[in-house]
Amino acid sequence: MTGRSPRRNVAIVGAGFSGSLLALHLLSRSDGPKVFLIEKAGRFGPGLAYSTRRDEHLLNVRAGNMSAWPDRPFDFLYWLSARRGDEAADPAAFASRADYGAYLRERIAEAATSGAAADRLVLVEDEAVAAVRDGGDGLVLRLGMGREIAADAVVLAFGNPPPAAPDAVRRAALPKELLIDDPWRPGALDGIAADAPVLLLGAGLTMADVVAALDADGHRGPILALSRRGLAPHRHVGPMSAEPPLFERIERLSTALAAFRRAAAGRGDWRPLFDGLRPATQGLWRSLSPAERERFLRHLRPWWDIHRHRLAPATADRLDALRAEGRLRIAAGRLEHLAAGGEAARVEARWRPRGGRAAETGAFAHVVVCTGPDSDLRQAEQPLLRQLLAHGMIRPDPCRLGLDVAEDGRVRDGAGVLDARLFALGPATRGAFWETTAVPDIRVQAADLARRLTEALAPA
């Protein structure tokens, strides 16, 4: 990118939270470029996580830390207060994700119609299927319906990929009426009868959302949530609080973990210490050697996830009540086999409990995949990612958490060379930053990238 292109167009592929937030920041700059926001699903703004209309789906971050703007920390609170007619929204509350989705849509609409935007936003309801060099300083995006968009810079903002199905699920090839491989698909849970026994594969935040939705819809059948370690997310407790980070860099994970445990034991609650790591997390990740990163992913990641990504108290209360009633069981074990058979519309499952020798079996009406996103680029479903990978224009990061990118968002090609025209934003950059999935992290990333793109594309 030379900064001399007369087009000054930025094409953002993906109009979920990450892509729409970048568009919001670009449009809010009076000197910003023209923005093409491309989304095949036709939903511009909230993305899957915040498109829900269900009141029981709550944010996992307190309202006081959910502003779309790093430099306007109370923007979401002001919006909530105006929407509800309250004098002041509670910054420690956990708002609904539906409310947050509405907030994002309104802020993007305001930015698009402001004087600073000056008709600079083009919403494109189509799928980007390929990107080629234009012979100069830009790229040409080819869309599924035949249109082409010339851009000075392209930003990949696909958001989280679908869940990663366990091997036993792939081998089983269950019919669609028995297997729900993506619970975030609109209407995915609608066919589950009130008394149906359900097997959830995974015990993290997606599990909690699925259980909450089923319970709110009147489901009364037994639910088994099965994961390798049987670890469920902890709950948020008490008011917002964070202590200064214990570390600025980490050379050995074992040493840092021991120091954290000692500090937590002396305070009685690990949460303020853990929350204190949040502003330092990206720097700590970068300080880890490749070998230590791999060790973290193999051994510590499940415990990081349940401590870092906690449940809103109301959601945690719901899960506790269901477990006490015996309607929800969270178990540790390895899924070995699935097969359609036995009774009509039933799935026979076999799993081996963690630490046990004898396998357990059960019959279920539905299997719901609640595992984390499949971040391996080799499994990518998007045609554009497959094309870029096949042509050596992108490559996976060393830990296979997403794309290999620099700290400024530029993508590395197959030879490791940084591309001055191709960027990535959000969950796809996890290999470089680790924490790039929550609003407080992505809003900083989006604001920084908007500034860099605007400066780089400024006219001579």
Describe this structure in words.
With 460 residues, the protein is an alpha/beta fold. The chain has three domains: 9-161 and 374-456, FAD/NAD(P)-binding domain, CATH 3.50.50.60; 167-234 and 311-369, FAD/NAD(P)-binding domain (3-Layer(bba) Sandwich), CATH 3.50.50; 253-308, no CATH class. The protein is built from 14 helices and 16 strands. The protein has helices spanning 17-27, 47-51, 75-84, 97-112, 167-172, 205-216, 253-267, 271-276, 281-287, 290-308, 313-325, 383-390, 430-433, 439-456; strands at residues 9-13, 34-38, 121-124, 128-133, 139-143, 148-151, 153-156, 179-180, 198-201, 223-227, 328-340, 347-353, 360-364, 366-369, 410-412, 418-424. The strands form three sheets. A seven-stranded mixed beta sheet has the order 8-14-9-10-11-12-13. The protein has a six-stranded mixed beta sheet with strand order 3-2-1-7-16-15, with helices on one face. Strand 12 and strand 13 form a beta hairpin. Helix 1 (17-27) runs parallel beside helix 4. It is globular, with a radius of gyration of 23 Å. Residues 1-5 have low confidence and may be disordered.
Topology:
Blueprint: E1 9-13, H1 17-27, E2 34-38, H2 47-51, H3 75-84, H4 97-112, E3 121-124, E4 128-133, E5 139-143, E6 148-151, E7 153-156, H5 167-172, E8 179-180, E9 198-201, H6 205-216, E10 223-227, H7 253-267, H8 271-276, H9 281-287, H10 290-308, H11 313-325, E11 328-340, E12 347-353, E13 360-364, E14 366-369, H12 383-390, E15 410-412, E16 418-424, H13 430-433, H14 439-456
Parallel strand pairs: 1-2, 1-7, 2-3, 7-16, 8-14, 9-10, 9-14, 10-11
Antiparallel strand pairs: 4-5, 5-6, 11-12, 12-13, 15-16
